[in-house]
Amino acid sequence: MVICIPVKHQKQVQEHRYYKVVLRHFTTPAVTCNTVNMESVSLSSRLNKAVRQQYMSLPQDGKCQVTYIWIDGTGEGLRNKTRTLNEEPKSIEDIPEWNFDGSSTYQSEGSNSDMYLIPVCMFRDPFTLDPNKLVLCEVLKYNRLPTETNHRASCKKVMEKVKEYAIWFGMEQEYTLLGTDKYPFGWPTNGYPAPQGPYYCGVGADNAYGRDIVECHYKACLYAGVNIYGTNAEVMPSQWEFQVGPCEGIDMGDHLWVARFLLHRVCEDFGVVATMDPKPMKGNWNGAGCHTNVSTMDMREEGGLQYIEQAIEKLGKRHCEHIKVYDPRGGQDNIRRLTGHHETSSINDFSAGVANRGSSIRIPRQVGQEKKGYFEDRRPAANCDPYAVTKAIAVTCLLNKEEEEEIE
Questions:
Q1: Where does the GS beta-grasp domain lie (predicted)?
Q2: Which of 55, 278, 359, 366 is 20 to 30 Å from the Cα of 287, by its Cα?
Q3: Residues 383 and 260: beta-carbon distance below 8 Å
Q4: Nearest CA to 104 among 113, 94, 117?
Q5: Could you give the CA distance from residue 105 to residue 113 in angstroms, rounded to a whole number?
Q6: What pLDDT, on the 0 to 100 scale, is given for residue 19?
Q7: Which residues of the chain have pLDDT under 70?
Q8: Is 274 helix (H, G, I), strand (E, B) or coil?
């Protein structure tokens, strides 16, 4: 049953004390009512796209648009701006440094606001198409030192130090689609969908919310050159996951950050919002993580399980240190997610197990049988910085104290 309320009477009904109770018990999530269950999408997404395409198809006379992308002072937000080059760049060396106003991105004061953009990785642009490029950048301060949220600089030093181990990462990025009202996309207004159960890897209009966005993002990643591995619907409705990797060393952070940028841009076109909040909905709903799969050359070869077990033992000894870098707020975000419920371990305890999704570290069943492969660190939050996560894992598993001190 769906209760449709004429617009002129909505305010009166919403003020009635029984309004929310009636909606919760008598609305069906699978059926949409224009006056009650309309998803909130942005106005810009409703602009005439045919008119836009007329301009997008115009020739560029050999010139190239380059969009510079960087991480802002929150450690989570992404910023971008575009400039023209006289010809298509062939490599990252062809992209000039640039600058921006750091006082508007939480990265500097107005009296000394210029920040440097240092190009580090180049991709094809799936929005304006070839020959245009997307360029991921590191941010340096006026004195050319890394900003506080530039974790790439120190991560790169570590990855160079452990290069001989050929460490591979694969990160599983969970996220939730929201309307512009910050309520989960597709959920009934002032109510909830059916309990978790049919949504994970689900199919059908009543189970999968926003698949168009997911498929467009996948295609955009492939076109750009992002090393995307796959995607699936997650346990909570409106929650999805994509996987990036395997990537070696610093490439993991580069590719995941660009994949996140592409997701936000695709969502912008559709008028919705993607959030990496680790626990977007309170109550009996799954949170969102960024499970990180790790493998060294030794782990991948015959008898590699012993190296996996050694790494897990080291990780257990530094559990608290890792929790502090597994979300942007020193573990405060993960407190809401790592409760020991909803397929998580407790934030206060370290655990490991074969095929156990309630542990800190999971050894896949196949790895346990073959005695080689990789392990999965399930603690990183969805909004983690992949540079900080991969650096911490590499340091703990592969370096001794003297080597750590050399890098610092």
A1: 64-144
A2: 366
A3: no
A4: 113
A5: 10
A6: 36
A7: 1-39
A8: strand
In contact, 233 and 186? CB cutoff 8 Å: no
| φ and ψ of 296, to 5 deg | -105, 170
| Cβ atoms of 364 and 371 closer than 8 Å | no
Going by C-alpha positions, the residue among 43, 251, 291, 97 that lies closest to residue 166 is: 251
The two most distant CA atoms of the chain are separated, in Å, by 72
Q: Which residues is 240 bridged to in the sheet?
A: 175, 233
Main-chain dihedrals φ then ψ at residue 317, nearest 5 degrees: -75, -20
In the three-class reduction of DSSP (H, G, I as helix; E, B as strand; rest coil), residue 366 is classed as helix
- Encoded tokens for 209: 């919310």
Two tokens at 338? Answer: 């790592």
Euclidean distance between CA atoms 79 and 97, whole angstroms: 16
**Which long-range contacts link 138-146 to residues 24+ away (Cβ below 8 Å)?**
138/70, 139/70, 139/71, 139/102, 139/107, 139/115, 140/115, 140/116, 141/102, 141/107, 141/108, 141/115, 141/116, 142/108, 142/112, 142/114, 142/115, 144/116
Would you state the torsion angle of the CA atoms of residues 336, 337, 340, 346, taken in this order, to the nearest 10 degrees? Answer: -80
* The predicted structure's pLDDT at residue 133: 98
Distance (Å, whole) CA 220 – CA 133: 13
Side-chain-facing half-sphere of 316: CA atoms under 13 Å: 14
Structure tokens at 374: 């990789």
Instruction: Tell me which residue of 37, 19, 47 sits closest to 183, measured CA to CA.
Output: 37
- The number of residues in the chain equals 408
In order, the DSSP letters of 207-239 are T-S-HHHHHHHHHHHHHHT--EEEEEE-SSTTE
What letter represents residue 249's amino acid? Answer: G
Q: pLDDT value at position 5?
A: 41
Question: Do the Cβ atoms of 229 and 254 come closer than 8 Å?
Answer: no
Distance CA 207, CA 309 (A): 39
Nearest Cα to 259, choosing from 225, 209, 215? Answer: 225
- Give the model's pLDDT for residue 189: 84
Residue 337 and residue 251: Cα distance in Å, rounded?
27
Look at the block and give the residue holding tokens 């909040």.
Answer: 277
